[in-house]
């Protein structure tokens, strides 16, 4: 299989928060609009030696679509302070190439043929809000309020940027929005997958902590 010829996609810069009872009121006060309400199942996969996730590579099937998140720079971590930066692959060919490289195996015909194990699977109900564009700003800011079916809720502020040079400003923007929403915390807030693993797969969770991935 030839490496993909298209340009890499945007960098997703995100900051998670604990959604308190006032968050919707705060979103409303900032002029945010509810733009989407969706429900989806995510199933996450790794090799038996956990080589993908221990290298901060997250392969999932969201409903019928395969997606792979990886840090923009090889060998680096996506978590930076309390924010994260990841790129997402959505083409099966690109995902196969990346997983083959990580596992050191030849490219199979399809993702299923890697024989990976599902390590987490849950349903999320998501409400997506969009903040109004600020004056002189073209940056679209999205806030997701997620409820997972294992009794866990988390919020996330997200912006998409095109280059690594824009990431620092994006981190600042996310911090500012969390302060405006009254949900700012210095330390990272754990997401759905980390929480699922802590509850259901303690040894996998321990190894991720030890590898400083989460
Ligand atoms: C705070 C924090 N978040 C994620 C990670 C790494 N990580 C763990 S699981 C994981 C994959 C799941 O990503 P996440 O953004 O938590 O899920 P979700 O919001 O449902 O996906 P989206 O719709 O945004 O694409 C990552 C990147 C980390 N180390 N620290
Ligand atoms: Mg997210």
Automatic annotation (TrEMBL):
Protein's UniProt keywords contain Cytoplasm: yes
InterPro entries in the record, alphabetically?
Answer: CYTH-like_dom_sf (IPR033469), CYTH_domain (IPR023577), THTPA (IPR039582), ThTPase_euk (IPR012177)
Q: Does the keyword Phosphoprotein apply?
A: no
Principal location? cytoplasm
Enzyme Commission numbers on file: 3.6.1.28
Q: Which residues form the signal peptide?
A: none
Q: What GO cellular component is one of the record's annotations?
A: cytoplasm
Report the cofactors. Mg(2+)
Q: What region holds the CYTH domain?
A: 10-202
Primary enzyme class: hydrolase
Q: Name one GO biological process term.
A: thiamine diphosphate metabolic process
**Alphabetized GO MF terms:** magnesium ion binding; thiamine triphosphate phosphatase activity
| One Pfam family here | CYTH
- Keywords, ordered alphabetically: Acetylation, Cytoplasm, Hydrolase, Magnesium, Metal-binding
User: What catalytic activity does the UniProt entry give for this protein?
Assistant: thiamine triphosphate + H2O = thiamine diphosphate + phosphate + H(+)
Q: Where in the cell is it found?
A: Cytoplasm
Q: What does this protein do?
A: Hydrolase highly specific for thiamine triphosphate (ThTP).
Tell me which family the UniProt entry assigns to this protein.
Belongs to the ThTPase family.
Q: How does it assemble?
A: Monomer.
Listed name of the protein: Thiamine-triphosphatase
Which species is this UniProt entry from?
A: Eleutherodactylus coqui
């Amino acid at each position: 299989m030839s490496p993909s010829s298209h340009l890499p996609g945007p960098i997703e810069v995100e900051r998670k928060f604990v959604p308190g009872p006032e968050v919707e009121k705060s979103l409303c006060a900032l002029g945010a609009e509810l733009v989407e309400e969706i429900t989806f199942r995510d199933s996450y996969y790794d090799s038996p030696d956990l080589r993908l996730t221990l290298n901060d590579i997250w392969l999932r099937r969201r409903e019928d679509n395969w997606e792979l998140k990886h840090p923009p720079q090889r060998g680096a971590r996506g978590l930076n302070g309390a924010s994260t930066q990841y790129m997402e692959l959505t083409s099966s060919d690109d995902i196969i190439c990346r997983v083959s490289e990580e596992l050191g195996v030849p490219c199979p015909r399809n993702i299923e043929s890697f024989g990976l194990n599902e390590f987490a699977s849950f349903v999320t109900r998501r409400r997506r809000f969009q903040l109004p564009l600020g004056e002189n700003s073209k940056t679209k800011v999205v806030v997701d309020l997620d409820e997972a079916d294992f009794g866990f809720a988390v919020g996330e502020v997200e912006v998409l940027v095109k280059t690594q040079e824009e990431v620092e400003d994006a981190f600042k923007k996310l911090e500012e929005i969390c302060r405006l929403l009254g949900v700012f915390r210095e330390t990272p807030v754990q997401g759905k997958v980390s929480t699922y693993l802590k509850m259901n797969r303690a040894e996998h969770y321990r190894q991720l902590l030890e590898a400083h991935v989460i």
